Here is the input.
Amino acid sequence: MIPALRLDNVSYRYEDGTVALRDVSFEIAQGESVGIIGHNGSGKTTLFLAMLGILDDTDGISVNGTPVTRETLNEVRKMVGYVFADPRDQLFMSRVIDDVAFGPLNRGVESEEAIERAVAALSSVGLDGYADRVPYHLSSGEMRRAAIATVLAMDPDIIIMDEPSSGLDPRAKRDLADVIQSLDATRLIASHDLDFIRSCTGRVLVLNRGSVIASGFTADILNNNELLLANGL
Here is the structure.
């Protein structure tokens, strides 16, 4: 089966000379939930930007077998959804339903179908009855789930989440982990919260100075204290 995501010796250097990614290679299977962990500056955000085709000169990335290039960006971005670290970057309308329907409408989906998609997406993240709520009146956990719903309404094959548990209380983290586990899409989750990573991923990649230092089952990686300490975790 074609992997959902494949990176083959991907490297990236910023204009100031900083090497952010060094020969990164890995595959993620269809439907996997994979955690990406590493200290600040380890390359997690750069890795995500490369996957989304935002960075130039990052050959070697393919999504569902499609190489990520300037020519394929529209196709790739239909397959990959990105949930920002701060949900307020994705919630900007006066009603939750309008935020969730915005993506499909912007892509040319008819209004009725866009609303149907939005309602289904809200239901899938446990926000039935929240359609007419004001996004900024939601709790932090509810805002996180609403932000995920905006991506789900686009029906992506892969969902990338950047620090989704940041600022949440324990109950909200558990609820969010349950939502993530219930999704059919392939999931990549970057987080400093190792307990959260343990609760919603089956495999983990450890990044340090732009390189993949280790990859393995979540329990094996997170129970390896020597590995975690050596990599600033």
